[in-house]
Amino acid sequence: MDFLKSFIQDCRYYDLEKREIKTILKYVNLKNKTLLDAGTGIGRLAFPLSKYAKRIVAIDKNKQR
Question: What is the pLDDT of residues 6-54, one digit of tens each?
Fold first, then answer.
């Protein structure tokens, strides 16, 4: 249940127009790169960017996520 609460809370910041992803991809070439997503939460950036990077390392301080 805690994960569900965290997911609902994080969804408030979800970018339906994908502006963050588009901006990151505009300025950073992720091809064959490893990306570190510190404070990943539910992975709202890590999951979509995983299509472009060789590897994603996603970490979060909160053990429930």
Answer: 778 777 777 888 899 999 999 999 999 999 999 988 888 999 999 999 9
Alpha-carbon gap, residue 47 to 55, rounded angstroms: 11
Q: What is the dihedral of CA 8, 60, 57, 51, to 10 degrees?
A: 10
Contact predicate 52/31, CB 8 Å: yes
The rounded distance, in Å, linking the Cα atoms of 11 and 56 is 21
This prediction's pTM: 0.74
Q: How far is Cα 24 from Cα 16, in angstroms, rounded to an integer?
A: 15
